[in-house]
Design brief:
- Keywords: Oxidoreductase.
- The active site is at residue 264.
- Residues 48-481, 532-750 form the Aldehyde dehydrogenase domain.
- Belongs to the aldehyde dehydrogenase family.
- With 781 residues, this protein is an alpha/beta fold.
- The protein folds into 3 domains: 34-41 and 59-264, Aldehyde Dehydrogenase, Chain A, domain 1, CATH 3.40.605.10; 270-467, Aldehyde Dehydrogenase, Chain A, domain 2; 509-621 and 641-775, Aldehyde Dehydrogenase, Chain A, domain 1 (3-Layer(aba) Sandwich), CATH 3.40.605.10.
- Strands 13-14-15-12-11-16-17-31-25-24 form a 10-stranded mixed beta sheet. A 6-stranded mixed beta sheet has the order 8-7-6-9-10-18, sandwiched between helices. Strands 28-27-26-29-30 form a 5-stranded parallel beta sheet, with helices on both faces.
- A hairpin with a 5-residue loop joins strand 24 (623-625) and strand 25.
- Helix 20 runs parallel beside helix 21 (654-665).
- It binds 1,4-dihydronicotinamide adenine dinucleotide.
- 1,4-dihydronicotinamide adenine dinucleotide is lined by residues 163-165, 167, 190, 192-193, 222-223, 226-227, 230, 241-243, 246, 249-250, 265-266, 298, 345, 348, 393, 395.
């Protein structure tokens, strides 16, 4: 094309990036890769080809890990871990800093390799993925440096098994590896089978950086290898990013193994445009929301919701913009959209869109290359909210759109999804933005911007988008554990007896549901005996129906989450005051139940605990994160929702208070299953609640078999989190059965806790009682 012709058409000319260095690196490695275990590459074994999805060319051959390979990688990580942790924060910080520097020095090699392997435009890998990778390592070098000072009482978990997807191959590695290493863990990581090359290049870089052997181990292969890692008995923590189906499978497969687990899964994130929005900016935002990385983004703004008054104009502008998007060779710096990651993904997206019934499909008319995994930018309108394309993650450059009339309606539409990863909203009205953001059920909300990420800002979802956060201080909880010794918890058996109850006025213990005493649906009760065999009373045996009623009551009390911390504090103090007034009676009751002499101490500890969480109710603050954009990322602590808890058997009152108080202080509603062996104190306690202004439904108390009730609570789709401090063996059951709605679980794995001491309260409880929502807000110059 001549200069004159260029001036006439004003078309972009091609600006190809050279692949020479990346290809040379592959040749240097012999084009065949083994695994990176204990600081060295293994001899390549049987494997599979890694292809460039834009051209179909084979880039290298990778090895499919065997069980022996995975065992060797885990053993290397295990051996290296104690020394790595003992290196101390500064020692590890220096290593992470060295990795960050090397990543910076070789940034173009990584960017090109990523684009060749994944198909994403070089503009994105060069300007977004790789800079964020570096930022993550720099940021976490700082976390390592500060760990001893800022995270006192926390220590490394051990060996982390990490399985990552193909949409941001090196970035997801960085999100997983940097915090793990910073906190003193070692890792065994499996990249996705389509995109392992940058992970292997990273392994090479770890070697160059002088990282101690065994600290980072990388094995390649498909989902079977992922399964070997996630279920490996010597892995302490699993971190997974990928599809919700596999995430759910991992939750079940690892149930009861005592592993930590974080899941970062799919989404169908709403992209809301109000009629007063800056429309051109919102359109550009949409390009970043759904056509960034070909829409293969877990938090892609894939569900457009436009306010009715501007819908026609907005869609017209959007289509015009779509027609201008350039789809083609990802190595061309002028390209907006590259290739999907693999023919399998192209087939999935094609099949989903082709199955569309009733919608109107608009495909950008800019054209796509005839060969390679390309799919045009696509817009689908006219679908009902329940249509599969409105509900399912398409994971391609396909946007679905609908309209709304009022802010209240858009909140309902936005939240009408089983996911809860991200949401975007555009408006020029700050009041509206700050009114809507808290109402969106999502882990991340972007205001007047989209798809912004930073190492300092937590990222992760709610509902079936998974649990756990990556990034920021909040991300470190998943890579550390409280530094304390644990003891096996023995099953606490109820006492038995035969002595007939003395004559007197019968006091019937009931369940406490929705602020009222309720008879059990089963119509059954059981006797409670003292150690000496004296009859103390009877307690109802709750069943599935009672749990359903309790959860419904808790759901109904959602206004509690909107009350102020100050009000919740007042109510917790009031509970403490009323309990204190009846301290002697409770102390006697506890002594009778347990056969011990610690009743008075337990009551005093319960009063103190109520004071502690009353104090925390308005002090467990969020933060404003200094992210490197013209804005701040607000880290807001929100209640989890409805929390079920199986209370400690050994401390009948304190165990119940220790679960209830942090949960309600943070704005949750609870369904508490009282100590199975010693339940009567809980039934006395609801009399305290009744006189302490606790709104009906905020606290519900049931008695019965922990095993049966754990099963019902775990399977209940309207329970958001389930905790177990029970001495019954229910941890595995809870983790397995909670996979349905991916509720957050916190189980004791048969380990005891000193309820009287410091480990019976504190930040661990507050963290479990809250979700971090990150709200990105424009701010400053
Ligand atoms: P996937 O969830 O199967 O793959 C992600 C990673 O998990 C890969 O490394 C894979 O090898 C591994 N894996 C697969 N099965 C496993 C198992 N049983 N145990 C342990 N690890 C296992 O995702 P896939 O099949 O590649 O893509 C399918 C769909 O998943 C996509 O169309 C998209 O909708 C969704 N997806 C979502 C992602 C996200 O970031 N939310 C990322 C990748 C895929």
């Amino acid at each position: 094309m001549t200069v004159k012709e260029i001036f006439e058409t004003m078309d972009y000319g091609p600006a190809p990036e050279s692949a020479a260095e990346a290809l040379a690196w592959l040749v240097d490695q012999g084009d065949r890769f083994g695994h990176f275990i204990d600081g060295a590459f293994t001899t390549p074994g049987d494997g599979f080809d890694s292809k460039n999805p834009a051209t179909g060319e084979t880039l290298a051959t990778l090895s499919q890990a065997t069980q022996d390979d995975v065992d060797a990688a885990v053993a290397a990580a295990r051996k290296a871990q104690p020394k790595w942790a003992k290196l101390g924060g500064h020692g590890r910080a220096k290593h992470l800093y060295a990795i960050a520097r090397l990543l910076q020095k070789h940034s173009r090699l990584f960017a090109v390799l990523e684009t060749l392997d994944n198909g994403k435009p070089i503009r994105e890998s060069r300007d977004i993925d790789i800079p964020l990778v570096q930022r993550h390592f720099y940021h976490h070098a700082g976390m390592a440096q500060l760990m001893e000072e800022e995270l006192q009482g926390r220590e490394a978990l051990g060996v982390c098994g990490q399985v990552i997807p193909w949409n941001f191959p090196l970035l997801m590695l960085a999100w997983k590896v940097a915090p793990a290493l910073a906190m003193g863990n070692t890792v065994v990581l499996k990249p996705a089978e389509y995109t392992s090359l940058t992970a292997l290049c990273f392994a090479d870089l770890c070697r160059k950086a002088g990282l101690p052997k065994g600290v980072v181990n990388i094995v390649t292969g498909d989902g079977a290898v992922g399964e070997m890692i996630t279920t490996h008995e010597d892995i302490d923590k699993v971190a997974f990013t990928g599809s919700t189906a596999v995430g759910r499978h991992i939750r079940r497969a690892t149930a009861g193994q005592g592993k930590g687990l974080t899941l970062e899964l799919g989404g169908k994130s709403p992209y809301i445009v109000f009629d007063d929005a800056d429309i051109d900016s919102a359109i550009e935002g949409l390009v970043d929301a759904i056509w960034f990385n070909q829409g293969q983004v877990c938090c892609a703004g894939s569900r457009l919701l436009v306010q009715e008054g501007i819908a026609e104009q907005f869609h017209a502008k959007l289509k015009a913009r779509m027609d201008k998007l350039r789809v083609g060779n990802p190595m061309d710096k002028c390209i907006d959209m590259g290739a999907l990651a693999d023919p399998v993904q192209l087939a999935t997206v094609t099949k989903m869109v082709d199955a569309c019934e009733g919608g109107e499909i608009y495909r950008a008319d800019g054209g796509i290359p005839a060969n390679g995994c390309f799919y045009p930018p696509t817009l689908i309108s006219g679908l009902s909210p329940a249509d599969p394309l409105m509900q399912e993650e398409i994971f391609g450059p396909v946007l679905v759109t609908s309209t709304f009339r009022t802010p209240a309606e858009v909140v309902d539409l936005a939240n009408n999804t089983r996911y809860g990863l991200a949401a975007t909203l555009w408006t020029e009205n700050v009041n509206l933005a700050l009114d809507i953001a808290p109402k969106l059920v999502a882990g991340v909300v972007w205001i007047n911007g989209t798809n912004m990420f930073d190492a300092a800002a937590g990222f992760g979802g709610v509902r079936e988008s998974g649990f756990g956060r990556e990034g920021g201080w909040e991300g470190l909880g998943a890579y550390t554990k409280p530094a304390r010794k644990t003891k096996a918890l023995k099953k606490v058996e109820p006492f038995t007896g035969s002595e007939i109850a003395p004559a007197g006025v019968d006091r019937t213990g009931k369940l406490y549901i929705g602020g009222k005493q309720a008879r059990p649906d089963s119509g059954y009760s059981r006797d409670v005996w003292s150690k000496a065999g004296k009859h103390l009373g009877e307690v109802p045996i709750a069943n599935r129906k009672d749990i359903r009623n309790a959860v419904e009551a808790a759901r109904g009390a959602k206004g509690w989450g909107k009350t102020t911390g100050h009000l919740r504090a007042q109510i917790l103090y009031y509970i403490a005051e009323n309990l204190s007034a009846r301290a002697d009676e409770f102390a006697r009751r506890i002594n009778d139940l347990t056969g011990g002499k610690e009743g008075a101490k337990e009551v005093e500890a319960s009063v103190q605990r109520l004071f502690t969480y009353a104090a925390w109710a308005d002090k467990y603050d969020g933060a404003a994160k200094g992210v490197p954009i013209r804005g701040v990322a607000l880290s807001m602590k929100e209640p989890v929702g409805v929390i079920g808890a199986l209370c400690a058997d050994e401390a009948p009152l304190l165990g119940l208070v220790s679960a209830m108080a942090p949960a309600i202080a943070m704005g949750n509603r609870v369904v508490l299953t009282a100590s199975e062996a010693f339940p009567l104190a809980a039934l006395d306690f609801y009399q305290i609640l009744e006189t302490s202004d606790v709104p009906g439904g905020v606290v519900n108390i049931v008695t019965g078999s922990h095993e049966e009730l754990a099963d019902t609570l775990a399977k209940h789709m309207d329970v958001d989190a389930l905790w177990s401090f029970s001495s019954s063996d229910v941890s595995a059951l809870i983790e397995r059965e909670s996979a349905g709605n991916l509720k957050r679980t916190w189980v004791n794995n048969g380990q005891s806790r000193d309820w009287m001491g410091a480990e019976g309260q504190g930040k661990e409880f507050l963290e479990a009682a809250t979700e971090v929502k990150t709200i990105w807000v424009p701010y400053g110059e």
